[in-house]
Known about the structure:
Elements: E1 4-7, H1 17-22, E2 30-35, H2 47-56, E3 61-66, H3 70-79, E4 84-88, H4 95-104, E5 108-113, E6 131-135, H5 151-163, E7 169-173, H6 181-187, E8 191-194, H7 196-199, H8 204-220, H9 223-226
Parallel strand pairs: 1-8, 2-3, 3-4, 4-5, 5-6, 6-7, 7-8
Helix pairs in contact: 3-4, 6-8
Amino acid sequence: MAVQINPSILSADFARLADEARAVEGADWLHVDVMDNHFVPNLTLGVPVVESLSRATDTPLDCHLMIEDPDRWAPQYVEAGAGSVTFHVEAAAAPVRLAREIRAKGARASMALKPATPIEPYEDLLPELDMLLVMTVEPGFGGQAFLDIMLPKIRRTRELISKHGLELWLQVDGGVSASTIERCAEAGADVFVAGSAVYGADDPAEAVRALRTQAEAATATAGWACNH
């Protein structure tokens, strides 16, 4: 599977979002963190900003909803222009129904797991998804340090994806940088959200290229990729 790099606008300049989106046009997706100050202790942006961003960039939007009641709100983000919508399983009342609704509206359906949430209870849900997000920090704030203890969970998730023969993307989000991306790729991730590592760089587009090169090199020698 191809490596994908998704810069997170959580680390961008919110007063210049259109410009910041254009600064990473070589990226695969633009990762948009939606926080409601209830599910996580931070407040970011919502549907109107997603609508505006979708008109301002040709890069598809990957919306990560760190919100309560995603069953109610997630479909609105598809309508706002998101190409992929991620809900947290800890917040969803009916994750299968929600994933099917997101797909029916024309977007990719993705489910996120907080660090303390195991993947195993949700094995039977995997065929309903297009992507699984393993959080490698506690959701809520950018710039946190990568949690190495999530690497075994990434490996277990990749094993379950392979076990069922699924074309399911495995995304990691939190502390992904030049010093951590290779470990994530080796463990089984193929979609990488990077905030500070991209927007904190002098040249965000070059940072995207460099991270992609690192991840591709690590994937090329990873056991899971060789057996895929």
